[in-house]
Structure formats: C-alpha cells, structure tokens
Design brief:
The complex is a heterodimer of chains A (448) and B (337). Helices cover 27% and strands 25% of the residues of chain A. Chain A is α/β, with parallel strands linked by helices. In chain B, helix 1 packs parallel to helix 11, helix 2 packs across helix 8 and helix 4 packs across helix 11. The chains are: A alpha/beta (448), B alpha/beta (337).
Chain lengths: 448, 337
C-alpha cells in the first residue's frame, strides 16, 4: 500500500511554508530518519525526515513551491507500514508535533485605511514581524545609545525572527545574546538605562517576563519617582503576549491589565504593522519605561506600512478603525481583528458598530472612547485576557465616569473564560474569545 | 583557585601604608557616618523619621575603604542600608537627613525615603528596597561602562542575605561571561534580618560564591578600613583592566538591629558589645593613627567638633525643610518632556 506524506507544521503557529528542495527522487528507497526535503517558513529552514520505510512513488509538490498549506500531501511512499512524517529540527520555542493549522484572527494580508497617513504616502506591504525589526533598525541607526538584548536575539536571529539581520548590521556590542536568565538581564537592562543608555529588552514571550517583573515594576517604573526626578529608565520591554496556538497555560497569558495597572510604565499593544512600527519607534524614543506587547499570531501577517524611516505613531492615542452608530467596540492587539470581523457580521444584521483600537493601554485614550460612546450609547469591550480586574473593566469604569448619562444599556465585556488556557484544541477554542463572542455581546447590548 | 581568605587584619602593615591626610579623612568619614546614623536613630525615636530605617553603625570601614580606592566616574549602588554609602559618595548630610524626615529638601524631594535615594552627580544609583535587585542593576551599570568604552567600574554592594538571591548568580554569570567592570561587595554583617549566615547559607564562606562563574573572590576584614582599601584597590584594578568582575566579602558587623524596629534578640546579648570593644572600625583607625604618629588627639578633637556640627546642621535642616507641596504627589511619575 502507499502512504501520503503531509506538509508538516514546524511550529505551533505555522500555517504554510515553502517546499524549498527535495532530497529524494521518485524510485529512491528511504528508511526511517532519512531527510527527504527542506521546508522554509518565514522564520526558519527545516529538514523533513521520514519515519517510514519504502520506495518514493511520487513527489506531489514541486521544489520551490510557496504557500504550501500544512497537511497538504507532498509525497507518496509505497510501504507496508503506516506512515507519518516529523520535523528533525526543533521549532523555535517549544517542540510541536504535526498539527492542524492554527485558527487565524485575520487573513494573511490586511488592508486598512488609516486617516493618520497623509494622502499620497507610498505604502509597502510588510509583515508585522519585519515592521518591528525595521523600527528597531531605524532607531538603532538614529541613536547610538539604543541596543537590543535578550535570548536568541543575535545569532539565532530572534526566537520569532523579529530581530533578523540586526546582528549583521549592528554587531554583538549592540545586539546582545543573553543566557536564559530573565530576572538578571532585565535588571541589567534597567541598570544600563539608569546610566543613560536606551536598551530594548526582548522577552521570548511576556510569560517569561514574570521572572523579571520585579525589575519592570520595582526598578524601572518607580525609579524616576523615588529619585525625585533625578534618575529615569528609558527602556523598552517587548515580546509576544497572549495566546499563540496550542502552547498551553504557561505560554499563553495576556498581561495587558497587569502592566496597565502600574504608574510609571507606558503600555502599548498594537494590532497592525503600521502601528507596531510607529509605536515601537515612539517607545524607543520615549524617556520612560515602556512595555510593548506584541502578538505571535500577528507576526506573520502583512499589512500596509508607510514607506520610509520617519513613521512614528504617538503613544496614548486610540484609533477609530471603523466608524459606526449603534455601538462602540473597544479592543487591542489581536482582538482588533476579531472586532473588525464582528463589525462586518453585525453590518449584515443591520447593526452599525464603531471599532476602536486602543493601541496604548497606559495612558489610556479615554477621550476617544467616551466621545464614541456619547455617539453610539452602547459599549462592548473585547480583550484576550481574563475579565476580572481587566482592561474591559477599566474601559467601562472610564465610560461610566465620563458618559454615564449617555449609556442606553449596561456595557458588556468579552474576554477569555476564567480558566488557565487548556491545551486540547476544543477546550482552547472554548476558553478564548473570538468574533462570534463579540457579535453575541453586541447583539445583547443592542437588543437585536 | 578563584577565591582566597585574607591573612587577616592590616594592622601588621607599616605606617607608610597610609599618610596623614588619608588617615584623617578615613577617620572623619567613618565618624561622620557613625554620628549621622546615631542622630537618625534619635530622630526616629522622636517620630521625625518613619517607616523603615536601617542603620549602618559598625560597618563604616567597608564603604569608606572602598570609596578611598575608587576613581571619579565609578558608580555605586546598594540596597536599603544606604545612608553610609551616600555620605561616602559625597552626597550632602542635609539632603540625606531631610529625605529621612520626608521633606522637600531631601535628595528625592521627600518621595523616596530611607531606602530610595539617588544622586546622578555623586554617581550613586540607589538605594534599593528589593533584596538583591541592586546586583543586577549594578551589573547593568557595568554593561553601560563597557558599551561606552569608558574606564569606570561599578561597585555593587549587597548583604549576606541578598547573597542567596537567584538574580545575584544570574548577574555573576553574565558579568563574568562578558568580563564586565564590576566589583561585587558582600557586606557580611552576619545576620540577614534575624537569620544568621549559618542558618541560611549552605556555603557560609561567601567569597567562594563566585567560583563556578570564574569570579575571583576574597575575604576581607571589613572592620579595618586599610584592609578594605587595599583589597578594593586590587579588585578595582582587576575590573578596570578588563579582567571582569571581582568579589569581595567584607566580614563586618552591625551594632544595631536590622532596622529601628528590630530589638535584635536573635544574637547573643554580649555579641555587639564584644565586637564594639575589640573590632570597632573607628577606634581601630584612631589607635592606628595615634600609634603610628599619623595624627594627634588634637587633630581628632577638631574632627569630632566638625562632624558634630555637620550632623547638627543636617538634623536642623531636616526638621525645618518644609514637607513637599501637594503638587509633588503627581510629579515625576513620568519624565516630563
């Protein structure tokens, strides 16, 4: 009998890749452990091993084919054994077996109309990952005091390939590979910032920053106040935040509300690549400590970004992503994609939703939210993290404070269920908020 | 072997180890810390200083000996028992005492308190209340020196209690890996709050704590300012010359409790007295200087008078400087653009 070899997923979030090269031909005999192909993703090149024995019957995908979806049959082997394939190299973060494609918050490419961009500005398509890299590279060219440190940021090119190319351009003085020692290197970053440098500290995920949260809060956020304004910590702490895909409870936590609680910190959580780039540049230039929350599931998505190296987005300004009249939906980071999707579905039901991308969580742009609620009279908040003491709770408190008399219905919160994130695919889906949850909440607050 | 025990006190050394000016300066600096701290204790008792107040009495030789070997530009960072370090760095007794009383004339405008003071001018980077945090921060100061290619060394002080914190070893590892210019000074006063070194540390010889990171360590008599200075010179030279971090364990003793609210019942009743009678760093310097003809009783009397005046002036200032204006509450949360 013959068995099909499927395009493997090489990381928890891989959805497609390029079949770069075949290392076997039709008619070759292969045995378990033989490397049969090389696959490239936007992050890495990996070898594919067979774990079957038999003769290659057919190669179903040509070498060089791009955008081969995970689980597409790529070859056929004749064998008496049951077969699967596996990747020989470990994925960047955690070993991931062959798995189904991750659910996507947004299509692979998104076009957004941005009122902040002057008309006629040439735009380029850039993945969010590369937009972050460009922001760092441009700021490092501009200011010799800016440097990057963290795990795998240099030679490995970034665990998520966000720092690709930086070591080559700036050398190991300014792109510093650290040991796995978050508490220590975060503290060192703050010390260097206190001495006047402008470090960017990358955490492989913000989950690991919990090891370092003492320095983020007790050292960085408080030093300016405690010193009566003498010392400051111009530092950026950045990394992916929130749920990726099937990585379980300890790698999926959204810390937005934690950092948003702390005076002395600025907290940014962008959705698209233009904001990611413009806000990261603003964060690096800011004289205060900034926590910059990225989202792994957005890294690979392409967005329009204004061309050139002078695109800076001001911190503390929310953005109306879609105008509407019946209700206001606030969201940040990946939830903005779901909110826009929900707004589209609501439009089909005759409900006009205004979508506000908070972008910065501290300082929170309450003015924009309150102005919107005064127009729509109804509010749904959406966040990926847990509800209690959360971003939604804060947004609602601000609206109660600023637009109580304009509210026609009690606001509703959409958020993760009150559980650690489960691993099982169905349970994970149940725990995380999505567009349908936002639609349901919107229908409830509008009684439609 | 990357760690060694010192041969003990430097009293055996000849008088040319130190000249008259230096001897007088060390005596004065240690006495200033002693008198300052005694006065701080008094003001605490009067209710003028509140919260936590950790006195440095007994440990004066450590910071004065270290400072004597430092060069301008070298940074200092420590934990919450920081008054002595600030005085040694040259911060004014007035601004320190006024910070203790929470007044606008304090170095942090009354917003930091005993444990949180800083001075960019004096290269003093705090004043940190989280045990061990200053070790990572101080290593970061050293990273900044390396980044800038300057000649400065960061001196990071911490106690025998902090020596058991994980981030200390994370910092040791990176400092040694990258050969950063930092001198780690463990002020082993033998008690981490109420817990003796033997009750908290599997390896009680703390100067050995750098061995697995290839960090040279040395035990020093921290009650002898000249022994401290000598060790500091070696350590600073080592760090400054690009050889990486150096670890000094200062054997010292605090006469008072951990903080003002600690009656220190966990140690033998006569232990402080015994140390004070036999190893007091100020008495030690006094005898040494007189014995070697470096100064006279008259010289010391003049210093005593001078120090008394400075401390009285600081205490007056700390009581007359106004409380911060309420508008200070919302200032300095963020850097004002």
């Amino acid at each position: 009998m013959s068995i099909e070899i499927l395009m493997p997923a090489l990381s928890p979030t891989m959805e497609e890749g390029t079949l770069a090269k075949w290392l076997v031909q039709v008619g070759d005999t292969v045995k378990s452990g033989d490397v049969i192909a090389e696959i490239e993703t936007d992050k890495a090149t990996m070898e594919v091993e067979t774990i079957d024995e038999g003769v290659v019957e057919a190669l179903l995908v040509e070498a060089g084919s791009q955008g081969v979806k995970v689980n597409t049959p790529i070859a056929r082997i004749s064998s008496d054994e049951v077969a699967t394939t596996s990747a020989s190299a470990p994925p960047p973060v955690a070993p991931a077996p062959v798995m189904a494609p991750a659910p996507s918050a947004a299509p692979a490419s998104v076009v957004l109309v941005d009122p902040e961009v002057p008309p006629g500005t040439p735009m380029v398509k850039v993945t969010l990952r590369d937009a972050l890299r460009d922001a760092m590279a441009e700021e490092m060219r501009r200011d010799p005091d800016v440097f990057l440190m963290g795990e795998e940021v240099g030679q490995y090119q970034g665990a998520y390939k966000v720092s690709r190319g930086l070591l080559e351009e700036f050398g190991d003085r300014r792109v510093i590979d650290t040991p796995i020692t978050e508490h220590g290197f975060a503290g060192m970053g703050v010390g260097a910032a206190m001495a006047g440098l402008k470090p960017i500290v990358e955490f492989m995920t913000m989950n690991f920053a919990m090891q370092a949260i003492d320095h983020i809060i007790n050292s960085a956020a408080k030093v300016h106040y405690m010193s009566g304004g003498q010392i400051s910590a111009p530092i950026v702490f950045r990394g992916p935040n929130g749920a990726a895909s099937r990585v379980g409870a300890q790698h999926s936590h959204d810390y937005s509300s934690w950092y948003g609680n702390v005076p002395g910190l600025k907290v940014i959580a962008p959705y698209d690549a233009a904001d990611a780039k413009g806000l990261l540049k603003a964060a690096i230039r800011d004289p205060n400590p900034v926590v910059f929350l990225e989202h792994e599931l957005l890294y690979g998505i392409e967005f329009d970004v204004p061309e050139g190296d002078d695109w800076v987005v001001p911190i503390g300004k929310a953005k109306v992503r879609r105008e509407g009249t019946d209700l206001t939906i606030t969201a940040h980071s990946r939830m903005v994609g779901f909110a826009l999707q929900a707004a589209e579905e609501l439009a089909a039901l005759g409900i006009s939703a205004e979508v506000i991308d908070l972008r910065t969580l501290r300082p929170l742009d309450t003015e924009t939210v309150i102005a919107s609620v005064k127009k729509t009279n109804r509010l749904v908040t959406a966040e990926e993290g847990w509800g209690p003491m959360g971003v939604g709770a804060e947004v609602i408190a601000c609206v109660i404070d600023g637009a109580f008399d304009w509210l026609d219905a009690p606001p509703l919160r959409v958020h993760q269920k009150d559980t650690p994130l489960p691993y099982a695919a169905n349970l994970e889906k149940l725990s995380l908020p999505n567009a349908a949850d936002i639609v349901a909440a919107a229908r409830a607050v509008t009684n439609r | 072997m990357a760690a060694k025990k010192s041969s003990g006190s430097a009293l055996v050394s000849p008088s040319n180890l130190v000249n008259r000016d230096e001897a007088l300066a060390y005596y004065r600096d240690m006495l200033l810390i002693r008198r300052f701290e005694e006065r701080a204790g008094q003001l605490y008792g009067m209710g003028l200083i509140a919260g936590f107040c950790h006195l440095y009495i007994g440990q004066e030789a450590v910071v004065v000996g270290m400072q004597a070997a430092q060069k301008p530009g070298d940074q200092v960072i420590t934990g919450y028992r920081d008054h002595g370090h600030m005085l040694a760095c040259g911060m004014s007794p007035r601004e320190i005492m006024a910070e203790l009383t929470g007044r606008i004339g304090g170095s942090s405008r009354g917003k930091g308190g005993s444990m949180h003071m800083f001075s960019k001018e004096a290269n003093f980077y705090g004043g940190h209340g989280i045990v061990g945090a200053q070790v990572a921060l101080g290593t970061g100061l050293a990273l900044a020196n390396r980044y800038r290619g300057n000649e400065s060394v960061s001196v990071a002080y911490f106690g025998d209690g902090a020596a058991n914190q994980g981030q200390v070893y994370e910092s040791f590892n990176m400092a040694s890996l990258w050969k950063l210019p930092v001198v780690y000074v463990i002020e082993n006063n033998q008690y981490a709050m109420g817990t003796s070194v033997a009750r908290a540390s599997a390896e009680t010889e703390l100067f050995k704590r750098g061995i697995s990171f290839e960090i040279v360590g040395e035990e020093v008599d921290g009650m002898d300012v000249l022994a401290v200075r000598k060790a500091a010179e070696r350590a600073l030279e080592h760090a400054r010359s690009g050889k990486g971090p150096f670890l000094l364990e200062m054997k010292t003793y605090r006469y008072r409790g951990h903080s003002m609210s600690d009656p220190a019942k966990y140690r033998p009743k006569d232990e402080p007295k015994q140390v004070r009678d036999t190893r007091d760093p100020i008495e030690h310097m006094r005898h040494y200087g007189l014995e070697h003809g470096l100064f006279t009783e008259e010289d010391l009397k003049a210093i005593d008078r001078d120090v008394k005046e400075i401390v009285a002036d600081a205490a007056d200032f700390a009581q007359t400087s106004p409380e911060p204006d309420p508008s200070e509450l919302m200032r300095h949360i963020y850097v004002e653009a």
